[in-house]
Amino acid sequence: QVQLVESGGGLVQPGGSLRLSCEATGSFISIEQMGWYRQPPGKQRELVAIIRRTDSTNYADSIKGRFTISIDSAKNTVYLQMNSLKPEDTAVYYCWASVLQATRGSVRTWANYWGQGTQVTASS
Fold this sequence. Notes:
By secondary structure, the protein is mainly beta. The chain is built from no helices and 11 strands. The strands form 2 sheets. Strands 2, 4, 5, 6, 9, 10 and 11 form a 7-stranded mixed sheet that branches.
């Protein structure tokens, strides 16, 4: 089993910055991808950013140039640096990870996990 523990959310004025962290702990062989999703009030969960084991990244168009995702592989921790926050960035932010859970011969078992969510509010 894998646990994702998030931290760093809070209340910030528009134009401000926050840094989210998410550490993966538990039993797994390696992390293939980690990322962040968010769910604004009354809306569906949406992708914010993903980073892969190869360090390639994908970002939602709405946050490009303002948010940066990074990973510390030694600590199994992913970060989301959020700058120039806007009121429309207000949401519950969820950490996500895709991990290699087990191998048996040539068969690999992957699994996806979610964090509990952390509230980010950009408001004056």
